[in-house]
Design a protein that fits this description.
Blueprint (H helix, E strand, L loop, with lengths): L2 E8 L2 H14 L4 E4 L2 H13 L8 E3 L4 H6 L2 E4 L10 E4 L13 E7 L2 H16 L4 E5 H4 L3
Parallel strand pairs: 1-6, 1-7, 2-4, 2-5, 3-4, 5-6
Length: 144
């Protein structure tokens, strides 16, 4: 069964996602990031600029198969036909269709009231489906 983790209280959801992806890639993990197209476009740009010292190799789902296979991070609106199913990072507002094919699912939740409310619905969906959820409160850890 897919391991589910929620990272709550991210002051800047995309900046936190960049740091999370840097850590995941540094540990050798392969990650698919799912979100609406506009969010993925902003994340794609941010991955090129968020750090002067780090580069996070990434591709979009529309890139050629050989590029996808070589990229530890894939940005995708849909979870169909992806090269790996290790970690899924959901930056969208809905439960990603097909998340069950991944070993781990990470949900990042900002401080925004609407984002928090939508996350509660996803939490309920996962618990109703029998998934145990690990909670990471970023406010308690001092992350920003």
């Amino acid at each position: 069964m897919t391991e589910v983790a929620f990272h709550f209280n991210a002051p800047d959801k995309l900046a936190y996602a960049c740091r999370l992806l840097r850590k995941a890639v540094g540990s050798g993990a392969c990650v698919v990031v799912t979100a609406p197209a506009d969010v993925l476009a902003r994340l794609n740009s941010l991955l090129w600029t968020f750090s002067q010292l780090d580069f996070i190799p990434h591709a979009t789902a529309s890139d050629p198969a050989h590029v996808l296979a070589a990229s530890p991070v894939v940005l995708a609106e849909s979870l169909a036909d992806l090269p790996h199913q290790q970690v899924l990072l959901n930056l969208g507002v809905q439960v990603p269709a097909g998340f069950e094919q991944f070993e781990r699912l990470i949900e990042v939740v900002s401080l925004d009231d609407e984002d928090r409310q939508l996350a509660r619905g996803r939490w309920k969906h996962y618990t109703d489906s029998g998934h145990a959820i690990t909670r990471h409160d970023l406010a308690l850890k001092g992350a920003n």
